[in-house]
Every structure is written in structure tokens, then in C-alpha cells.
Amino acid sequence: MTPSAGEPPHTPVRVLLCDDHVVVRAGLLALLSSAPGIEVVGEAGSGEEAVAQAAQLRPDVVLMDLQLGSGIDGIEATRRIVALAGHTGRAGRAEHAGPAGHAGRAGHAGRAGHAGAAGHAESARLPEDDAPGSAAPNDGASSLAPLPAPRVLVLTTYDTDADITRAIEAGATGYLLKAERPEELFSAIHAAAEGRTTLSAPVAHRVLAQMRSPRPTLTDRELDILGQLARGLSNREIARALFISEATVKTHLGRIYDKLGVDTRAGAVSVAKEQRLLP
Questions:
Q1: Strands in 19-160 per DSSP E
Q2: Residues linked to residue 133 through DSSP beta bridges, in sequence order
Q3: For residues 85, 65, 71 and 100, what is the CA-based torsion angle, rounded to 10 degrees?
Q4: What is the rounded distance in angstroms from the CA atom of residue 113 to the CA atom of residue 149?
Q5: What is the helix (H) or strand (E) element at residue 76, kind and residue range?
Q6: pTM of this structure
Q7: Does residue 26 contact residue 34 with C-beta atoms inside 8 Å?
Q8: What ranges make up the beta strands (E) of the chain?
Q9: At what angle do helices 220-230 and 265-274 cross, to 10 degrees?
Q10: What angle do CA 150, 154, 157 make, to 5 degrees?
Q11: Could you give the CA distance from residue 174 to residue 151 in angstroms, rounded to a whole number?
């Protein structure tokens, strides 16, 4: 249950931050540190790092940016994190967090106020947990339990139809824009932890618009021609590449233009890329 205003929950929502901009992560960390009932347990600067930390730390919510520089993007990272559902992990996740709320990341070592022994609690403690005579015996069945996948809450500046659709299809629980007020972000994090969906108002409008006007469906042949069009080929070159006549190419182009609502080759390619119709 979401806590009442001003009243933190008994168990805070454990959050992993993923953004490739160090300054943005620092700002989010400072902001979330002031929020009741929210605990930041780790930070990631890439999609690969976010997936690895999500598997290790098992946060309740991963706050995910979409554009992450080199490597996998936020969409693919979301897909992989959601796929962690059902994987077994060490029961009692609270043991992994130190007093500062950050678990064993070398990246915290150089940050004043967030490092120290507590910041390395996990890496220092896990081998001891498995050692003979440990206070928490590892008998296999009792120490391992199936864990749900962390919820992924997208936090980005991008609100194109293609980005929203891909994030939702990848399994994101919510989609927020970075222009949201802090209170909206806090509320969305709590909602995501409970499995409830939160969308920024502009995103919700776009989702409704997509539902009212579904993405056009192109045939395999039309997609082939569109792909050749994106390469800058002429009608004659497309015909040769696909072993069809120029007249057939023109017929298919007319149908493609109608479906995409455009009247130029450049317009067709632009809309196709926006709607992720091209690989």
C-alpha cells in the first residue's frame, strides 16, 4: 500500500538508477535521498551494467533512461531486466544493503558521503555468508528463493511514438519524462514498486492516439521495397534488386505512401524510421 503523505513506508522502495550522465545520476540521487520511503541501492552508467546490477541487487524499481551511449540501449536493458523474473536469488535482500543504502559498487568509492565500508557491504559479506560457521547457513533450498523481476520505470526526455511503444513492448511498468515534478516521480516509483502503471500526461496522450490510429501494417514485399528505398535506390535499381518490374515497384510505392500518409520518398523513409518499420 502506498504510504500516506509525509509517512514513509516500513520497508522503503529499493531503487537502481541507470543513466549514462554522471551529473544526472548525482542529481537523481540527491533528489531521491530526500524522498520518504525510497532508498537508492545502486547506480549504473550503461545498459549492461544496469542488467548486471539488477540481477545482483534485486531492486524493487529500476529507473531507466533510454539513450545510454555505446552498448545496449534502455529498451534492450529493460527487456533483459524483465526477463529476470523467476530466476533464483539469495533470499532476504536486506542483507545486501549497507547503512548507506548502497551495495558493493566500486563506482561509489570515489563519491563523498556515499562510500566507505557500507558501500562495499555486499562484495565483502557474500563470501562470508557462504563460509562454514556463518551466522546465516547456506543449505541450498533455504537460502535460495525465486525472486520477481525488478519493475522498470523509464525516465527520459524522449517521447516519440516509437520510443514509447518499444519501451512498453519491452515490459516497462511506467514511462515518465524528465520534466515531471519531483512529487510525480516519487509517486511513480511507489506505484511501479506495486506493479501499477504511471505515464506522463504527454505520453498518455500519445498512447491513446496510437490506439485510435494503429501503426500501419505493411506487407513483406512493401517492407522489402521500403528497405531498398531507405538505401537511396531508384525505382529501376529497386526493381533489379528484387527481380520485379518498375511498374510493380511504382504500384507498391503508391500503397506505401497511402499507408504511411506521405507523398514523397523521403517522407516514407522518415515515417518508417520513426515507427520502427525499418530494421
A1: 38-44, 61-64, 88-90, 144-146, 151-156
A2: none
A3: -70
A4: 30
A5: helix 74-82
A6: 0.59
A7: no
A8: 13-18, 38-44, 61-64, 88-90, 144-146, 151-156, 174-177
A9: 110
A10: 165
A11: 9
Q: In tens digits, what is the pLDDT along the chain, a chain of 279 residues?
A: 444 545 544 699 999 999 999 999 999 999 999 999 999 999 999 999 999 999 999 999 999 999 998 899 999 999 999 999 765 544 344 334 333 334 433 333 333 333 333 333 333 333 334 444 444 444 444 445 567 889 999 999 988 877 888 899 999 999 999 999 999 999 999 999 999 999 999 999 888 877 777 677 889 999 999 999 999 999 999 999 999 999 999 999 999 999 888 899 998 998 888 777 876
What element of type H or E holds 257? helix 246-260
CA 219 from centre of chain: 30
The label of the residue with cell 561509489 reads 108
Q: How far apart are CA 234 and CA 212, in angstroms?
A: 34
